[in-house]
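Q: Predict the assembly, please.
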Amino acid sequence: MSGGLSLERLRRDGEAFMEELSREYYNAHAGLKASAELQPVYEKYRSILGRDALELTRETFLASAEGSEERRSARLLLDWQAESQSSRELAPLDEREIAWEGDAVVRLSDGRVIQYQRTAIELANSTDRAERAMIERARSALVEKELAPMKRERFQREREITESLELAKDYNDTWELLNGVSLNGLRDECAQFLRDTQAMWDEVFPDFLKRTLGMTPREATRADALALFRAREFDQYFPANEMDASIRRQVREMGIDPDAGGRVRFDVGEREGKRARAFCAPVRIPSEVYLVLRPHGGQTDWQTFLHELGHALHFAYMRPDHPMEFRWMGDNSVTEGYAMLFDHLMQDAGWLQRYTGLDKKTTPSYLRSAGFEELHFLRRYCAKLIYETHLYGGDVPWDALPDLYVEQLTAATTFQYARADAFVDVDPRYYAARYLRAWQLQSLITETLVERYDADWWRNPRAGPWVVQALFGEAQRELAQEQAQRIAGNTLSFGPLVRSIERMLG
Ligand SMILES: [Zn+2]
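A: Predicted assembly structure:
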C-alpha cells in the first residue's frame, strides 16, 4: 500500500506542484525575481514526490493492460516519478555545478580574464582564428580540470539511481520502457543518416568554411563552428521592429489567434535580469502561458520567437479536459516538433518573401546557408545520440568515453572536438532523442500540411483550425510515432529531412 496516496491526489497535487515550480522558474528567468526558490516548493509537496508515490505509480503501471489508456497514463506518471527520484538526489550536484558555472573564470594566455559563461559568446564573436584558438585552449583546460569531473560524477550517479529503481535491466532499458522509443532503432537511423548525407556534407562543407572563415577543413575546430554559425550576413532582412507584428499577422492568416484569447502572454521587451535565452513557461495549462524573449536583433530572434511560439500555442490550445499527465508530461518530441514546425518556416521561400525582408533575389543564398546549417545540426545531433547511448549504456568504460566522443563528433561534423567536453556536451536523459524525433515529426507534419492545404498552408485560414484541433488539442497524449501514424499514415524517418536539405542546397 502507498501511505494514503491515491492517483487522484497525485494528479491534483502534482498539477499544483508543477504550476508552482513553473511560476518560480518564470519569475526568476524573466527577471521579475532575483532567484528561483525551488526548495520550499519541493518541501511543500514532499508527500507526492517520495518513495510512496513512486511505488503507487509502479503498481498502477504493472497492473494496467498493455496497450490500454490506463497503461498510457501510468507510464507517464511513472516516468515523472522516476525522474523526480533522480532529480531530488542529484539536486546537490546540480547546485554545485550551477554555482561553479556562475563563478568560474577563464584566464587567457594574453592576460585577459573572461567569465566562463561568456566563452561561447566570445568564441562566436571573434573574427580572429588565433584568438579563438587561444580562448578555446584556456576554456578546455579549465573544463577538463574542474567541470568535467563534476559532470562525470553526475552521470554516474544518475545511472546508478535509475538502475536502483529496478524498473528494467539497465538505464537504457528503463528509458525505453518509460518512453516507448527504441534507442537501438534510433541509433541505427542516425548512423544511416550520417552515411546517406556524407557525400553532400563533403561537398558543401569546405566551401562554406572557406567563404565564411577563410579556413580549410583540416584546421577547423568546434570553436570555429561557433563563429561560422554566428555569421550575420542576413540579419538586415530580419528587422527587429517588424518581427512581432509580422509573425502575428502570419499566425492570424492561418486562422489561429496568436494570443489564444489572452492565454498566451508575450514578454518580449528588454528587462534587466531577463535570461539571454528565450523560453516558454506554461504556468497553468492551458490558461496561462508566457513567451519570454530578450531581444538581441536579427535572424536568431525571429527563429527563437517562432520556436517558442510553437510551444506557447501548443500549451495554450491543449484540451483542458485531458488529465494532467497528458498536459504536463508525455513525449516532449511532440512539443519540440510543433516548435520546429514554426521555426522551420524560416526555411520556406514563400513564407520568407511574404513576412521578412528577403526577396526573390536574396532568398536562394539565404536558403543555401540555412540548408547547410540544418545539415550540420542534424549530423551533430545524430553523432551525439550515438555517443550518448554508450555513455548511458555502460558498454564503454568511463575513461574511454572522451576518446569515443571526439571520434564520433569529429567524424560527423569535420570540426575537431575536445576530450574535455565528453561529459559537458550531453543532453541529460536523452533529450537529443526528443530533438531528433521532433525534427522527423516536424518534416512529416509539414508534408501533411502541404498536401492538405497547399504549399502556402501557413496563410490558409483552414490550416490553423486543423492544427489546433488535430495536433495542439491532443496535448502530449501520443508518442511522436503514434501521431505520425495518425496524421500522415507514416513512420518517422529522416527521409523528408534529407529531401528538404537537398532542395535548400539546390
Ligand atoms: Zn523547444
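The radius of gyration is 23 Å. The first helix runs from residue 7 to 29.
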